[in-house]
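Recall the central idea of this unit: under ordinary conditions, the amino acid sequence of a chain determines the structure it adopts. In this exercise we apply that idea directly, starting from the sequence alone.
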Amino acid sequence: QMGVVSERIDGLRVTDERTMEVVEMVLAGKVNSEIVALMCHAGARAVGLSGKDDSFIRAEKVLRMKTKAGRECDPGRVGRVIEVRTDVVTQLMHGGFVPVIAPVAVDADGQSLNVNADTVAGAVAAAMKADKLLLMTDIDGVRTADGAIASSITAAAVRALIDGGVITGGMIPKVESALDALATGVAKVHVVDGRVRHAALLEVFTDTGVGTEILA
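Accordingly, the structure predicted from this sequence is:
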C-alpha cells in the first residue's frame, strides 16, 4: 500500500531507510498492538515492546551478506543481535505481564535495525535462560534429506542439513536461532506450524508432537 517492495536475501530482508521506517511502523506499531489487544481480550495482561524500549536489544549492522549466487551485497539496515538486556522483560514478567516483543533492535547510535524475528526470539530466550523456545511459523517443521518432517532431531544433525544444502532460504535463520539458543543453555527448541489449531499444546503435550523438537 505504501509502495515499498520487499526484497530478501537468504531469509533476511534487505532494508533501506524507507523500508526501515515501514518495518518499524508495521511490526512495532500495527502488528504488535494487534497481538497485544488479542491477548488482552483473551484474558492475558500483555504489554508491547520493541528492542528500542530501554535499548534492551542491542545490535550491530550486518555489513555484507552473500547471496545464493555468491555475490556479496550490503543488506541495508539489517542487524545482528550482540546483547539482550533483560531487565525490562524480567520486571514485566514479575509483575504478571506478558511481553510482546517486536524484532526491531537499536545500534550504538540509537538507530533502528531490522532483525529477523526468529533470531530475536532465540537471543531473548538465551538471555532469559529459558527452558524452552517455541518457534511458531508457517512451515510443518524441519525436513530431513528425504523430505520427511523430523519429529525430533539433534543440533548436530541440523547443522549437517545446513552444510549439506538441505536446509536453505528462510529456514536458515530459524534453525540458526535454534542452534544459538541451544548452545547458550536453552534445553529444547520446537518448530511448529502456527496455522495448525492448538499446535503449541499438541507439540509439547503429545509423544510425537506436530512439528520438530531440536535437542542439544
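The helical segments are 17-41, 87-94, 117-127, 155-163, 171-183, 199-205.
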